Records
---
Amino acid sequence: MKTIGITGPTGAGKTTALNALRSLGAEVVDADAVYHRLLEESESLKKALTGAFGEEILDKMGKIDRRRLSQAVYPHRLEELNALTHPAILSEIAGLKRKAEGEGCAALAIDAIALIESGLGEWCDVVVAVLAPLEVRVRRIMARDGIDEDYARRRALAQKPDTFFRSHSDHTLENREGDRPEDFEERALLLFRALLE
């Protein structure tokens, strides 16, 4: 089974790239979705996060409020959050990878902003970075998450620079200013077809 790592900053277009991979028959593991499920279900992670960031990150029902957690973390405590969450996320993804192998999947894509820092990149046969200009990313984050420009910009700037993603990836997919989604998707399909041959 070929394992392709997809990384890059939020708002760059990883979802479009992953849809291209899905259309080619790849199974997709979304590290963010795994993380969000763990925030909902893992009592040990909840205890670790409230210990680090305080009870203020909980909602009225005692569940982790992702927006409150995000406000407690960005922009200066992201590494602290990652140190607490990455081991749990990696453990879950390892199980999903074994399951995909057991089911005979031809390809698995692992989507993770922190693919390199978490160690997930080492599990991949090839790593592809998806990048876009900062202003494009800020607009997309605002539209996607329903947040204001200042908060979207803080989130975007808290992430690694493009040079980091470029230097740790085997291939780069550029989602350029003015690209139509179908233009970017076509470039993604061309690359992924070549990688899966």
Note: The chain is about 55% helix and 15% strand.
---
Amino acid sequence: MDHFLYQKGVLHAEDVPIPEIAAEVGTPFYVYSTATLTRHYTLFDEALSGLDHLVCYAMKANSNQAVLALMARLGAGVDVVSGGEYRRAIAAGFPGERIVFSGVGKTVEEMETALEGGVRQFNVESEPELRRLSDVASRLGKTAPITVRVNPDVDARTHEKISTGKSENKFGIPISRAREVYAEAAGLPGLEVVGIDVHIGSQLTELEPFELAYAKVADLTRALRAEGHGIRRLDLGGGLGIPYERSNAAPPLPTEYGEVIKRTVGDLGCEIEIEPGRLIAGNAGILVSEVIYVKSGEGRDFLILDAAMNDLIRPAMYGAWHDIVPVNEATPGAELQPFDIVGPVCETGDTFTRNRPMPELAAGDLVAFRSAGAYGAVMASEYNTRPMIPEVLVNQHQFAVIRARPTFDEIINRDTIPHWLEDPA
């Protein structure tokens, strides 16, 4: 469910008409719903009721400071994967004890920043990282709480570019070697083993891969405890998918996901962490764009929009589907016509979809890409010197720009011309 609905034939974000936002900020832009973000966080929190738990929002899905501040106020933890994301978390109001630091390539500087500023745990992904973190923590006179990310070799049955739990993926330590790695960790100075971490992929639409992975984690927990390790926390990752294509069957609900967790690891007495990002933010945002031209081609017609692959790269990168709807609701029973929907960037890959049935549209009409709140704005660029587009947050009947569109002068003036190329005049 989201809060982007038609009211009297016009698409609204909560109680704000989309054309009202477009008139003030210009197109294209992202708009997020406070009510949807809040509801989706709450669903996960309630799904784990009865267990000691922390829902850690995966910042990489949408890292706008306003979104993060909302999550912090709701009581969420946060999962970060870089020093920059760590700084964003602190700036948004997350205390160190609610910040989980993940990622396969943590640098010394990032480790130092988190140890000095406070961190809930490091999710360690390799033996070299384990040894380096031990050195850094010992040098600073700190103790780094750690989990080891284990790779359970479970097929998440998702897109190959967002699968993380198979043996060929770069993430984590093979679960078959976990016991020897934990033994090494226990003997290293500056480290405190607190738990186990696992994450098998993103946009999962079935529960069985979670069940298989979590059952392996439960077995590993018992084995590690028998060897004297104080496993008191299980970080089970995220990955539950969202319904990008409304005509398809809906993915499992957070309540059903919660039941899998309770069934597989609920009897271990561990604190449970989960790291949803996409399901919290995905359906909480849309991308709004204007039709520039309707173009007739050889055997196909095009809708050319003012949004492009640099604004929303998921279709070009993953072949991802987004429902695209007119902001002014089509008349019931209106005839549909297939269009290739494209942007203005000089790349053939700047194609959002091909042969998509759409109602009649004209230059100046607005369209909305649904389910664009996750991995949209955060993956955007200024390719072709196209300014990063605004982000807007709606709360009932009010809205605010939470990231402004830069001017062309601001973009160009970031570059510096070396003195030997300056005009001698």
Note: Residues 208-226 form the longest helix (19 residues).
